[in-house]
Amino acid sequence: MIGMVSRREVEFAIDEITVTGAREAVLDFTKPYFMESITIVSRAPAEKSRAMAVFSPFTPGVWAALVVSVAIIGPLLAIVNHFTSFCLGEKHRFSTRDFAFNMFRNLVVQGNLISSARWPLRCIFFSWYLFCFYVCALYSGTLTAVLAIPAFEKPIDSLADLLRAVKEDGFSPLFIHDTSNVHILKEATSGIYKEIWDRFEPDSGYVFSANEGVDKVLTGKFGFINAWLASEIRISARGKEKYHLARQTYYPQRYGVALHSGAPYLTVFNKKLNPAGGIRPHRQVEARRDRKGVRERRWRRPPRRSRRHHPDASAGRLLRARSGAPRGILRSGLRGRLLQRARQEGA
Q1: What is the C-alpha separation between 218 and 220, in angstroms, rounded?
Q2: Distance in angstroms (rounded) separating the CA atoms of residues 96 and 76
């Protein structure tokens, strides 16, 4: 479309054309008629597999500590047993293997088959039983929570999330070729823009339309960087449940009408467009309509409620006739007492 305007095959083009420095060098652009922020479109996060859910309650460090504890407790009990037997002059009955196996049984809630009357062994047994109780309670509670709540992949909600997905999960950023989004990241000299651009692969990361970019998102691990409204319209047409739109937006881009260089009606477009974007007459009509609505709401009186069929209307008239009380008293806090007195007199 840009080429058609530059070759003067058409007079002008209006189709979500972003204003960039390279385009302004060969074409004339009107004032921006619309501005919108940039967002990231990715496929909807999938539910994580639960094949390894039994190991999810604890971190690898905790599992390593449990293995070391089971490996140490058996020899420790055997050493204490040998020492107490030597001091008491008795023969020890249990081997290191027996102690290790029974302590593992305690950890997996299978009970202990070893009993001893020696207090050093009993103290170690009690400490191990308490340790196993805490471990089992934490494991069972955390595993229940993990299995009850479905876990999903982490969504891409910002540029930082996209950079993390590129580094850790093998995602690739997508851009529409020769748009302002490309120039913003390409010209960056530092920060997150430069980090994303350094990992960009032009062979697979360029598309030539928003429709192509939204469709390509579903074919692999891609994060499509595009205008928010254009992306919202396209994913709504294809099914929102298939996509995820980032919650954070950044760097608004400008849309302008592209005309060939030296077009005589450039000033006509600019007169109809205000600096903030939009057509002047349309905005003026909307402004007048809003002001008129405000005035109507300001001077409109609320409808007066009729008391003709109110259940207390007859009692009120009877009360005013008998007591001669003015209307203002009936509206005060004495109304209840006056009504009560009228009922007593009628009785």
Answers
A1: 6
A2: 9
